[in-house]
From TrEMBL:
Keyword Oxidoreductase: yes
Organism: Falsiroseomonas frigidaquae
Keyword Protease tagged: no
Organismal lineage: Bacteria, Pseudomonadati, Pseudomonadota, Alphaproteobacteria, Acetobacterales
Official protein name in the record: TauD/TfdA family dioxygenase
Sequence similarity: Belongs to the TfdA dioxygenase family.
GO molecular function: dioxygenase activity
Length: 292
């Protein structure tokens, strides 16, 4: 297996491994280290179905069963279908395009290590793939914070709320998302998260506060909290932290949900089909030991 770093600070290509087959211990360790080092890994020319992507994700941690997952392959509720395809007047997957910047599972007490997505269909126009997934590097964003901001926020926490993001998505043109039910809201109440975390693989500090879910900084007056969050969101969105992945059918894309934020670009139409399988890996293992 080879891990080939992209030019710039984020992302790498992984070659010489068939991810539909069980990983050897050596390949698992190499992928885990590469995930911490590069933040985003792409293994092209893969062919996985729901059982294979589920098995791959399970090697890295417990898989989440999303409370709002209405679209999954039969027998695999842990696998989500992301798609704009409509059959017999009904969507076959969740259309996730145009979400805005966020970090999956920051709204949960138990956070996520990684996302793993596998592209089956990629929208194309005039020979160019559409629907890029973009990433921002939160290792670098933390490192570049002014010293006075680091000092002011060290040890502080922010409230993250699943319903904030869900309602923002519901307001987008063409959205088919229903409001969350009382049961879904009960299962995902707002939670408190540290603004700075120590990454479990790299041991380095990261900025863990994203515009999709973060609502307010605890212990601050509302105006002060709003101003600080605005600063953090503008700081982390600088182009120097950006990597944009251009999809090809067969890509398996794995990204670090602790050290990156991400955004799905909504530049394709309803008649330009997209179909992707997704699993969410929760941070349930001792990654420092496993990567050693």
């Amino acid at each position: 297996m080879q891990v080939i770093a992209n030019q710039g600070g984020v992302g790498a290509t992984v070659r010489g491994v068939d991810l539909a087959r069980p990983l050897t211990d050596a390949d698992f360790r190499a992928l885990l280290r590469a995930l911490g080092t590069h933040g985003v890994l792409c293994a092209p020319d893969q062919s996985l179905e729901a059982p294979q992507i589920s098995a791959l994700g399970s090697r890295f941690g417990t898989l989440e069963h999303n409370v709002a997952n209405m679209f999954h392959p039969d027998g695999h509720p842990e696998v989500m279908i992301l798609s704009n395809v409509v059959q017999d007047g009904k969507p076959v997957g969740l259309n996730d395009a145009g979400q805005g910047w966020h970090t999956d599972m920051s709204y949960s007490t138990e956070i996520a290590l990684a996302n793993i997505l596998h592209a089956k269909q990629v929208p194309v126009r005039d020979g160019r793939p559409l629907g890029d997934t973009q990433f921002l590097d939160m290792h670098a964003a933390y490192a570049d914070l002014p010293a006075e901001v680091k000092q002011r926020l060290e040890g502080r926490t922010a409230i993250h709320d699943f319903n904030k993001f869900w309602e923002m998505m519901r307001q987008r043109p063409g959205s088919t998302r229903p409001p969350l039910t009382e049961e879904q809201l009960r299962r995902k109440p707002p939670v408190s998260q540290p603004i700075f975390r120590t990454h479990p693989i790299t041991g380095r500090r990261v900025l863990y506060c994203n515009p999709g879910y973060a609502m307010r900084i605890e212990g601050m007056e509302e105006a002060e909290s709003d101003a600080m969050l605005d600063f953090l969101f503008r700081h982390q969105s600088q182009e120097k932290y950006l990597y944009s992945h251009r999809w090809t059918p067969g890509d398996v894309l794995m990204w670090d949900n602790i050290a990156t934020t991400h955004n799905a670009v909504a530049d394709y139409r309803a008649d330009e089909p997209r179909y992707i399988l997704r699993v969410q890996v929760m941070a349930t293992l001792d990654y420092a030991r496993l990567a050693a």
